[in-house]
Design brief:
Helix content of chain B: over 70%
Shape of chain A: globular
Strand content of chain A: under 5%
Strand content of chain B: under 5%
Strand order of the largest sheet of chain A: 1-2
Distance between the termini of chain A: 32 Å
Largest sheet of chain A: 2 strands, antiparallel
Radius of gyration of chain A: 21 Å
Strand order of the largest sheet of chain B: 1-2
Structural class of chain B: mainly alpha
Distance between the termini of chain B: 45 Å
Oligomer: heterodimer
Structural class of chain A: mainly alpha
Number of strands of chain A: 2
Order of helices and strands of chain B: HHEEHHHHHHHHHHHHHHHHHHHHH
Number of helices of chain B: 23
Largest interface: A-B, 36 and 34 residues
């Protein structure tokens, strides 16, 4: 194998990120506790450079590297840009939170960076092995991050649950992959696609492989009935880790579904469409209904995530350019909303106070009209009310579903979004209509204020002018 | 006057941007500055909307003042504004009413005044957007976005049960509108565009038309509101602050009626024809049954809320009775049908003034006594003679006294209904008795008789601000009642065009 075949240049962002993570790891060892900010600043600078490197990549053509293990296309570039940006903002949100709890340690950033590397590998995977490698790198980092606050028993329990269920899911995925390998004789996504296309008649083993892979993917995305880990993990983790789990890995999970189902199994679409319909309807139903009964804000967001995954699946199951791009638009915008939602929770925390009960939002409009407004935008966006971007995401997905003559599915989706509106309205009610019980000043650093405001306003701005992002998503599947 | 300005964009965006400015002006110290700023913005918007009236060409039914830019190219959604004779009067009504609402909240609202004023300004812009959008998605964005400020207005400044009322209001309206959204997406794939005017020319089979008809009905019937989905309205009205009730009654209800005119009738004429009995039946129940319900209310605001439902029954009756008129006429005579539709339009505008006035009146009493119970009042005329004079006048117009605007619309609809069927007209005409009964009985109990208690004895008559609001409204009601021609002339060409559209079968 020559160096040209490796085609290293298209993987420069990943290579740089790996170097960065190792550097941060080493540098952090030699830092004293009071100079931990160096780790933080170093990671942020590294992430900015990674962003620059990603934007340097050529978007003209689809390029392979590492002997077909790694692919770079517009889809990969857009998604990578998104995950790096999301992680960078999570880091901004987390600094004060970690300091307040005396867990401001280098490990958080190192694990975060390694997880990010895993996500980028997943996004660019063109091979079942590289996909699995990326997924495990991400998952192992996440398990450790969930248990990051060692003294907290909730966190330990959540990490345990996450690890066991995650391992089962990975096992399922691997088992499915092995069956597909057995039938097609290849692990390369493009070769698998070609091989499946040539097999004319129904192949039972292949379908079994597909089923196991869909189960594995649903676990990772958190679709009902494979959603049980989500509420516990969201609830048990430190809020900063929750905000990490709830945002960037969703984008990577979307890429995984696209690479594994759409790209390699595209010709089996008739088979996986049926499975995704069931998963989507169940997710929307269970997510929206159970969310009503939650009194913990993180659990509420967890169930809301499940219902949003249902919507993303609606776009995926359409199985055409319109559907995939709608699902991509939904995933990206949902990650932004979710980031903002957890950002507000982090904003309200202080030393010894987690602010994760929904009553902690009471009277936010009195305490800080500006951040109440930001949360208002984010919540209405999650509910899908214009002029926020959540509406356009829902519209794009519904449009894709109507276009494949599944009007009934669109009606089911809007029906559950009516149920969903209730718990979102309850949050608004607490912030605006109730008197504040806790009138303490919201103390927060300037960088967090700026980032959170920008986050909320992005949700509004994308709602007023969604065209650019929309056409980018369409172009990614052209 | 400003003929070449982008007037529609201005009346939509000036209040919204102005509202944000008022919001930013904040509540630190006295809110006097925010209030002044809000008033100035609403006045300027009103003057601009008058430009729409003066430059309006009565002779054509085409959309005027059109502005069209690409907004979301990949979905072929356009920023497309335009008005015809059906929507222009409603825009002027909106800008007019907003001024009154801002004046009415001047001293009463002390809690977070800048947010209050801003919410109403943003509402104004969004409602103007609903009336002027010609792209169905653009329409839908305004239609839904409107819920947010109203939700906040009722929830923050409302009465004791405000949370229940406002969540009920939001969920009801949201429930109706999402099905309309699916219908719009479906029609997009049939016509290849979200433009409302393209949808008017779309050929649709009977099954499709029926489904779309009911999807639209879910959205508009909740908004009007029609019996039996009216139950959110009494709650919302009672709990909303005075300004919120005025906007709800005067404008938001009209959006439902406007929806029937703009979407249901021209897009699904065949389905409307076969289900006209349903709408006519629901409208008559609203007129008669809700009229009786209004009679037994002990809460003034609730009474006026029910009377609003009954009056809006006339609007939907006028819009759908046209099919019966056609059924009876030999050669599809449109003049009778035009009378019905124009009657419905006049009724919408006039109800905007009258219901606004009624809620402002109740607001005047509530600000002084903090009670809406009829039983707490009595003999108010002795302490507030000027106010009582206005109250009697508005009550009379609510009951449909000839010479006031309330009479014109009801009379036109009843007259047209006679051409359809005697019994429809007969039942509709009972409103003249019921309306008089519940309104005048309320006035009698509140204003006449002995001074009931010390609180009534201590009442102060109208101050200058309230006198100004009442006088402006009285002039509007009287003017429209005595000389409705300027309003009817504006809508004539558009109504004719609409009827020609409805008369054509849209079956493929």
């Amino acid at each position: 194998m020559t160096l040209e075949m490796l085609n290293l240049s298209i993987a420069t962002p990943e290579i740089f990120l790996l170097a960065l993570a190792c550097t941060v790891l080493v540098v952090d060892v030699y830092l004293k506790d009071d100079s931990r900010n160096v780790t933080y600043v170093l990671s942020q600078i590294g992430l900015i450079i990674t962003l620059v490197l990603i934007s340097q990549q050529s978007l003209q053509s689809r390029e392979l590297a590492f002997n077909g293990l790694f692919v770079n296309d517009l889809l990969a570039n857009v998604l990578k840009y998104a995950v790096v940006l999301l992680v960078a903002i999570v880091f901004v949100y987390s600094r004060r939170y970690l300091q307040d709890r005396s867990i401001f340690k280098g490990e958080f950033y190192v694990l975060g960076l390694f997880g990010l590397l895993g996500m980028m590998v997943m996004i660019s995977a063109n091979h079942f092995l590289s996909m699995y490698l990326g997924l495990e790198l991400l998952s192992l980092s996440l398990y450790a991050m969930v248990a990051f606050n060692r003294e907290n028993s909730n966190a330990a329990e959540a990490a345990m649950k996450y690890f066991v269920l995650g391992a089962i899911a990975s096992g399922m995925l691997l088992y499915g992959m092995s069956m597909v390998y057995g039938m097609t004789g290849s692990l390369n996504i493009i070769e698998v696609a070609v091989a499946i296309e040539q097999m004319k008649n129904d192949n039972l083993v292949l379908i079994f492989g597909l089923v196991f892979m869909v189960i594995g993917l649903s676990f990772k995305l958190g679709a009902v009935p494979f959603h049980m880990w989500i509420p516990d993990v969201y609830h048990g983790s430190p809020t900063t880790v929750t905000s990490y789990i709830a945002t960037a890995p969703k984008v990577a999970g979307f890429a995984m579904v696209i690479r594994l189902l759409a790209e390699s199994m595209g010709s089996l679409q008739a088979d996986w469409q049926g499975m995704l319909i069931i998963l989507a309807v169940l997710s929307m139903a269970v997510g929206n209904v159970i969310a009503i009964a939650q009194s913990n804000l993180k659990r509420l967001f967890a169930y809301s995530t499940i219902s949003h995954v249902g919507f993303i699946m609606l776009g995926l199951l359409a199985g055409n350019q319109e559907g995939y791009s709608a699902a991509m638009f939904y995933t990206l915008t949902y990650a932004i909303m979710s980031l903002g939602g957890f950002g507000v929770i982090i904003l309200l925390t202080r030393k010894g106070f987690e602010a994760d009960n929904i009553d902690d939002l009471k009277g936010l409009n009195q305490r800080s009209p500006w951040f109440a407004f930001i949360m208002l935008i984010i919540i209405f966006s999650m509910a899908g009310v214009p002029p926020t971007v959540g509406f356009w995401a829902k519209l794009a997905v519904l449009k894709a579903v109507v276009n494949i003559d599944m009007l009934w599915l669109a009606l089911v989706a809007v029906f559950f979004s009516i149920i969903g509106i209730f718990y979102y309205l309850r949050i608004i009610k607490l912030m605006y209509f109730d008197e504040a019980e806790d009138k303490s000043e919201i103390n927060c650093t300037r960088d967090m204020q700026i980032a959170l405001s920008a986050n909320g306003l992005t949700v509004l701005m994308l709602g007023i002018y969604p065209a650019a992002l929309m056409s980018l998503c369409l172009a990614a599947f052209a | 006057m400003f003929a070449d300005w982008p007037l529609l964009s201005l009346v939509v965006w000036l209040p919204i941007i102005g509202g944000v400015a008022v919001l930013l002006s904040g509540d630190k110290g006295s809110s006097e500055g925010s209030r002044r700023l809000a008033l100035i913005i609403s006045l300027v918007t009103f003057v601009l909307s008058l430009g729409l009236y003066t430059n309006f060409d009565n002779s054509t039914s085409a959309m005027q003042f059109q502005e069209r830019f690409e907004w979301i190219g990949d979905f072929s959604i356009y920023y497309h504004l335009g008005v015809d004779g059906l929507s222009m009067p409603l825009i002027v009504l909106t800008t007019f009413t907003t001024i009154l609402v801002i004046l009415a909240g001047w001293e009463v609202i002390q809690k977070r005044a800048s947010q209050y004023m801003a919410a109403f300004l943003i509402m104004e812009g969004l409602m103007n957007g609903v009336f002027s959008a010609l792209d169905s998605m653009f329409f839908y964005v305004f239609w839904e976005a409107m819920l947010i400020p109203m939700f906040i207005i009722i929830g923050v400044w409302g009465g004791p049960k405000r949370v229940y009322a406002t969540i009920k209001f939001f969920i009801y309206t949201f429930f109706g509108s999402v099905f309309m959204l699916v219908a719009m997406i479906y029609m997009y794939y049939q016509s290849g565009s979200f433009a409302i005017l393209d949808m008017h020319n779309l050929k649709l089979g009977m099954t499709e038309q029926t489904l779309i008809f009911f999807a639209f009905l879910a959205a508009f019937a909740v908004k009007v509101p029609m019996w039996p989905v009216h139950t959110w309205l009494p709650d919302a009205h009672v709990e909303a602050p005075t300004g919120g009730s005025v906007i709800l009654a005067a404008i938001m209800l009209k959006i439902g009626g406007y929806g029937f005119l703009r979407f249901t009738l021209p897009i699904t004429p065949d389905a409307s024809l076969s289900y006209d009995w349903l709408i006519i039946g629901m409208s008559l129940i609203a007129v008669v049954y809700i009229g009786f319900v209004a009679l037994v209310q002990s809460d003034m605001k609730k009474l006026v809320a029910y009377s609003s439902i009954a009056h809006m029954g006339f609007v939907t009756l006028g819009l759908f009775v046209i099919f019966r008129i056609w059924g009876n006429a030999e050669n599809a005579d449109i003049s009778g049908a035009a009378l019905a539709v124009e009657g419905a339009m006049v009724q919408m505008i006039s109800h905007g003034f009258i219901s606004g006035a009624m809620f402002l009146m109740i607001g005047v009493l509530y600000d002084r006594m903090h009670s809406r119970e009829i039983a707490d009042y009595g003999g108010v005329v002795n302490t507030m003679p000027v106010f009582a004079a206005f109250a009697v006048f508005f009550a009379m117009s609510n009951a449909g006294l000839p010479g006031t605007s309330g009479f014109v619309g009801e009379f036109m609809v009843i007259l047209a209904a006679f051409k359809a069927s005697f019994w429809i007209a007969f039942l509709a005409a009972t409103t003249l008795i019921l309306g008089a009964a519940y309104t005048l009985w309320m006035v009698k109990r509140v204003f006449y008789g002995e001074v009931k208690n010390d609180n009534v004895k201590a009442l102060q008559d109208l101050n200058q601000r309230e006198l100004l609001i009442m006088s402006i409204l009285a002039i509007a009601v009287l003017g429209l009642g005595l000389y409705p021609a300027p309003l009817v002339d504006v809508m004539h060409a558009s109504v004719d065009n609409l009827l020609h559209h409805i008369a054509q079968s849209k079956l493929p």
